[in-house]
Structures are given as structure tokens and as C-alpha cells.
Amino acid sequence: MAAEQGQLLWSPSPQQIAQSGLAHYMDWLAAQRGLGFDGYQSLWQWSVTDLDGFWRSIWDYFGIEADGDPARVLGERGMPGAQWFPDTHLNYAEHVFRNAGSGWPALIARCESAEPVELTWRQLRRDVGALAATLRRLGIGRGDRVVAYLPNVPQTVVAFLACASIGAVWSSCAPEMGRSVVLDRFRQIGPRLIFATDSYTYAAKSFDRRAVLDEVLQGLPGIEHVIHVPGPLFRPGDPSCALPWRHSSAWDDALARPAELAFERVPFSHPLWVVYSSGTTGLPKAMVHSHGGIVLTHLKTNRLQHDVRPGDRFMFLGSTGWIVWNLMVGGLLAGATVVLSDGNPTSPDDDALWDFIDRHQVTLFGCGAAFLVKSMKAGVVPGRGRSFRKLRAIHCTGSPLPLPAYGWVYGSIKRDLWLASVSGGTDIAAGFVACAPLLPVHAGEIQCRELGVAAHAFDEQGRSVVGEMGELVITEPMPSMPVHFWNDDDGSRYRDSYFDTFPGCWRHGDWIAFSERGTAVIYGRSDTTINRFGIRMGTAEIYRVVEEIPAVVDSLVVDLEFLGRPSFMPLFVVLAPGMALTDALVIEIRNAIRTRASARHVPDAVVQVAEVPRTLTGKKMELPVRKLLLGADPAKVASPDAMANPRSIDFFVQYRVPGAAGAGEE
Question: What's the pTM value of the predicted model, to 2 decimals?
Fold first, then answer.
């Protein structure tokens, strides 16, 4: 089915609304606080006006277990530097296990190279307790950094929860990440212990990572212990599988001695994990999130915004190097079964993951928008032969969901389905603008701002605007904003990252527009905005038009402004298999942009490429490509180890911009 911008595609039924966690929370506010709201928009307005009242209600509604007094919600209110619940101590892992249910598993794991496995809540508690005791025996405790080089498997969740339970600080990289990317991240935080695998599988191929990890260990002299999690290539006792790593011990040995699980309650602001920016053009920012901030935010986001309920099966595609993994594991706070997926979701074929979702009765499926677009372009019809009886919602992120994908979801998967595009970031480990189960779905629009998120579109004068594009700005603090960046003692890098444009307000770097009814449209990153003939346009507006053309699978556009020369704007396109960039297709692409986006933004050239360069989290690398084509040194533009497809950059290294010979670096 076709979909037009703003078209109403789905509305929740009265029964669906009544069963939602958000409706229950609003009933609780009425009964316990005497607060009544006529809809989501008025609830949101209260949540960002009365910060103390809202976040204390989240604390009380979810029954946070802590030492100390939560009466003082905000010790300091300013940004950066807000202090939340400064008189309390709590533990993330403690809040995970208080919601354990015997009637459903804690984890279900889909591994490309093996049959799915389930882990009961009892087994999860047993393994976490045993591993936490081992960590203590090794001298690991509160504040020590523990890192992982592991795929999206149950052992990674166990290791994270064991670290959280003792107050150690967690950080992870996916095993497909290369040596320099891992060292750029882990060197900043000085870890003492690493969980690591010898190999991983992707697209039916297994990759040996022993040598890579050995190089990583050489660059991390402070690591005293390596706990080995066997990968698909490991065979115990086989000399060819010997591990070259120092101080290595086996995962099974680390879990061999059962121990009662105990929880170290730490200050609300105590570091829970360190996560990182993409690092494609410089040293990644090492963002520190707190135990308390993540407990409150992930309960709010998962239970109220995404409507994750006890016993649900919650799956979000993403590696251990992407923040959606952290958000998905936060589904355990809601008492849900977390469904892990390791490997290529389209292996052995494009139907594989849809078969799994149906067979294992996934309730809420999350993914990058690119996965839905890929399925659509491949001609997959997931609803054919599958009931998706339990599937209530599909939520996507990473990039705006194009209009044809909205129509494809409702026409090819399931008609009664809550489809939501959401946008947030590693920076806050949650969403800025996202979804709510009380609201309808309009094609091409994000449903709402998240509760407690004072998101606005600012014009160049710093005024909040509605109905027009502006900078995405957050005007009030949130508990999941980083408490600091690691090794940023004076806070200068933190301030420069978010607060240099609008003092006292967080500028996120996205173009956004809000409608009168509170929905939002993201127009792309503001630092790659295309300004042609005085008209600004986000790149997402061009992608939305171009990628609706059936022959186009992916695209990337940059505007090259050379000193003393006219600007040159090339559009790079990836075509569907068997398609060629004919003159007729170029004309179709140009006309689509001219008539549906802007006559001022018709590209100067349309160029076919095999792949669009992307970060490890799937974001298009617009700024690095732009710098490269302006003459920057390729070695300084993007680290191959920080890319999902490093060979894709080779084309742009060789590409010569017509009429721009001799152009220098920006």
C-alpha cells in the first residue's frame, strides 16, 4: 500500500490504550497525585515544567529500591552539571532481578551458527551471582573498569549484570571492530579485566579474532585478567585453537562456583557504563551514564514510551557496540524477556529473521530503519504464511523511515501494528522524540517527544519554533544525560559538544520540526546541512525522495563548497541488483528531487556506487565523505576500523570532482 506524508495509518483501540503501561501510569497520577491530563501533549508539558514532580513520580510509580532519601530530586538544576537524587544509593542489577518471572525466560538468543537457546531467570541469577563472586576474588570492585569484546550473546548480558551488581564500570565493543577502534575506546578508561571471544560468525562465515585481541591486549597493559568466551571456531584441546592472550581463564571456570547474588548499592550518579560516539573523524567521546539515571530513564522509556510489559518478548537488532543493545537489555528492568540476535539477520535468506520473530512470538521488534528498507527492496512479504500473532509493535531508529516503508509495513507485515520511528542517541541512551501507545501513527512523522524531554526546534536566534525546521535543542536536564566524559576533568569537551551554541541548552546537532499536535520530523544532521542559493535543507529530505524510487537502494549526498569556486553537489546512489544508472534513471532522480524536495537542490551529478560508507552503527558518513572530496587526507578522515564497510571509502578516495582539481583541505 502507498502512504503519503502525514497520512493516518493506525490508531490504538480503546482496549489497547487501556492495557498500556502509559494509561496505567496516568491513572496512578490521578489517584496518587491528583493530577489529570486530557492527553499525551498535556502530560508531556507537565513532565518538562515540573521536573521534580515528574521524576519523583517515576521513582515512586516504579517503586525504586534505594538507600537514602529521594526527597531532593535535583540538587543542581543547571546544564551541564545537573545533580539527580544526590542523597540516594541504588544498583541497576538489583532492579533487574526484582522483576524476575518464573513463567517466562529471561533471555532467548538467536545465533546465526546455532539453534536458539533460552535462559531462565533462575539460571540468569545463578550465572550472574557466580561470575560476580569470581570478579570479587580477582580483586575487581566498585569503580574498576571492565570491558568486553563480545557479540550479542547471553554471556555478554551475564557479564554486564555481574559488573553492575558489584559497582564495576562496564564498556563493550563488538568483535567485528578492529584493533584501532577498540584501543581508541578502551585506552581512555584504563580497564583491569576484559571478557573476550576468539571468533564470531556473520553471513555464514566465521572470523578468527585471536590475533586482533592479542594486539589490543598489547595496547592495554593495565588489563590483569582475560576471561575467554568460546566462539564458533574454538575447539577445547585442539592445539590450533590455542589462545595467545596473557592471564587468560575460561568462561566456564568463572561460573563454576555458585554464589549468592549480592548487590552493591552505589550513589545515584555512580558510573554504570561508558559508551562512545562514532569516532569516524577523531577520538571517540567516552560518555559516562549513571546507575540511577539509566534505571529511571529505561523504566520510563521502555515501560511508558515503548510499552514493554512483564512477560513481553523484546527484541532490538543491534551489536554490542550500539546503544540499542543497552536499551534492549534495559527491557529486563520491565520484567520482559530480552531476545538477542547475533550474526546476519538475513542469513541464510531475507526471510530468516521474520521466521524467527513469528516462531518465537516476539512482542516488540526494534531495528534500524535500514533493515526494513532492505526487506522492502528485496521484495520480502513477511505476512505471507506467518501470523505474527503476538507482534504488537515495530519500532525503528538510526535514520528516518522513508514513506514507502510505512506503506510496506502495513501492507506486507500486519495491519494492526504500532509502527514507530524514534530518534535519540548514544549520548542519552534513550530517545528525544519517540513513541507513545496512546497516539496514532502518521506516515513520515515521529509520534511525540518523550516524557521528561524538553525538546524544541530553535531558530538561529534561539527561539522555539513550531511548524518550521530548526535545531533540536533540549532546554531542561534529564537523568540520563552523561554525568561526564571520561578523562575530561575540566568538562570542556562535554561543554563544547552540546552547549557551545545555545548556552545552558543542549544542542544535539539534528534539524527537526515539530507540528502543532506534537509530532516531529527529523531532517538530518545540522552539521551536514546543504545550503544552496540561501535555502537550507537537511540531507534526510533528499534521501526520503530518492530512496522511494524502486531502483535506488541507498544514497548519499554532499555539498562541496570550494574556496573561490562554485559549489558542486554530487548524489551517490546504490542501485538494486541488476539495475544500471541509465540516462532515464538519472532524469527520474533529478525530477523527483526537483518536484518533491527542492528545485534548488537538484544534484550536479548522479553517481553510482557499490556501497554508501556507514559507521558501525549504520549511520551514513556524510561529513567524512564531504571532507574527503574537499581534499582532506584520507588517513585523517575516517578510521576503517570505525566503519561497517571500510572498503566503501575507496571509491571516494579515487573520485575526482569535476572542475575541482587542486581543491585543498577544508
Answer: 0.87
